[in-house]
Amino acid sequence: MDNDAIPPFNVPPPPVTPPPVIAPPTPPRPRKSRGWMIFALALLVLLAVSVLFNIGNVFQSVVHVQGLQVHRFAGPRLEETLVEDNNTSAKIAVVNIDGIITSREMDQSGYNMVDVVKAQLKRAKEDHKVKAVILKVDSPGGEVLASDDISKAITEFQKQSCKPVIASMGSLAASGGYYVSAPCQWIVANELTITGSIGVIMSTWNYRGLMNKVGLQPFTFKSGKFKDMLNGSREPGEITPEEKDMVQKLINETYDKFKSVVAEGRRYAHDKNKSEGQALARDWEDYADGRVLSGKEAQQFGFVDELGDFDDAADRAKEIVGIHDANLVEYRVRYDLSDFFRMFGKSDAHGVKVDLGVEFPKLEAGRLYFLSPTYLH
User: Fold this and answer.
1) What distance in Å separates the CA atoms of residue 221 and residue 124, rounded to the nearest whole number?
2) Which listed residue (147, 175, 197, 338) is catalytic?
3) pLDDT above 90: residue 279
4) How far is CA 292 from CA 140, 214, 254, 302, 311, in A?
5) Does the active-site annotation cover 175?
6) Confidence class of residue 359 from pLDDT cuts 50, 70 and 90?
7) In the annotation, is 136 catalytic?
8) How much is the pTM?
C-alpha cells in the first residue's frame, strides 16, 4: 500500500470562503422642498402689485393744476354695475341707505356710509346719461350728524345737478331713515312701511347703585361744575334740574332741526310736483312726536307722496324726467389688493363677533341719535 495515498490524520480541512456581503443600495438624498420658495415668491409678487396699486392711487390723489384751477381726486373708488338693462343710453342711479346710518368705517376701505353716498351722488351728477337718482332706504335711522350730512348732500345734489332724487322706502324708513328721505323730490313708500318716528334720543347709564353694592367709590376731578353732568358714576340725586334743562335744550334744538328739514324738504317737493304730490297736513307737527307711522298713514299726513314699491319709484323717476325707459345702475365700492393688505394691519378690538342674523345698533352713551324706538327694543 502506497503511504503517499493516505492523507495525513492531523491536516485541517481547507478554509471555507464566506459568501460576499451585498450592501443595500444607498437611498437617494431627499430633495429639499421648494414650497416655501414658491410661497415667498408669490407673496413678493402680490406685494409688488399692491405697491403699484398704491402708487397709482397716490397719483390719482395728487393735485393736478390746469391753468388756475386745482382738482383733487379722492374718496371711495366706485365701479358702475348694471342692475337692470333696458337697452337704452339713459340711466337711473340707485343709491342704497341700508342699516344703521353711521359715520363709522364700513369695512377695510376706510370709508364710511356718508363718504360712499357723497361719492355716489358726485358720480351721478357728473354722468350726463344719469337722469335721476333713486334713494333706496331700508333703515331705522342712526347718528344725527351722519343723517344730516347725507340729507345735505341730497339737497345740494338736486340743486346743483337739476336731477331729481326719488326716495323708495323699504320695510323700515324711520327717524334718520326718514330724515334722509325728506329732501327728496318724491317719496314712495309701501303701505306697510314703518316710517315717521320724527324725534331725537340720547341715553346714558347710571351705574352708581352697582358700584355701591360692590364697594367702589368714584373720585372725579373736573374743570367746571358741568363737566361730568353725564357721568354715570354720580348719585341720581346729584343731577341738578339745571343740568337736566341743559341736556333737554340740546335735544329740543336738534328736534327743531329735524322738523325744519321735514318742512323744507316737503315744501321743495310740493313746489316741484305741484298737485301731483302730497303736501304736508296743517297739523303734521302733531304727528312728529316720535310716533311710528305706516306708509299709508304717512301719505295721509303728507310725509309720503305715493304708495308703491321700488318699481313704482323707478316708473315715477322716468315720468318726472320725461323718458320712456332707462337702465338702472349702482355705484359699488371697488376693492383691490391694497385693501386686501390693509386688512392685516387692523385688529378687531371687540374680539369674536357672533352672527345672530340681525344687526344691533352700537349706541354710545351721550351721543344723539335719530333712531326709531321699534329698533331699540
Assistant:
1) 52
2) 175
3) yes
4) 11, 41, 19, 14, 25
5) yes
6) very low
7) no
8) 0.74
Query: Which residues, other chains included, contact 121 with Cβ-Cβ below 8 Å and sequence gap of 6+?
Result: 95, 133, 153, 154, 157
Measured between alpha carbons, how far is 13 from 10 in angstroms, rounded to an integer?
9
Kindly state the helix (H) or strand (E) to which residue 141 belongs, with its residue range: strand 141-143
Rg (CA), the chain: 36
**233 touches 211 (CB < 8 A):** yes
Tell me the CA distances in angstroms from 1 to 8, 10, 11, 104, 171, one per residue in order: 15, 20, 20, 125, 133
CATH topology for the 75-340+362-376 domain:
2-enoyl-CoA Hydratase; Chain A, domain 1 (3.90.226)
* pLDDT higher than threshold 60 for residue 339: no
Higher-pLDDT residue of 42 and 318 is: 318
Which cell is 10 given? 492531523
| CB distance 143 to 367 below 8 Å | yes
Per the CB < 8 A criterion, the answer to whether 124 and 157 are in contact is yes
Q: Which of 227, 249, 346, 362 is catalytic?
A: 227
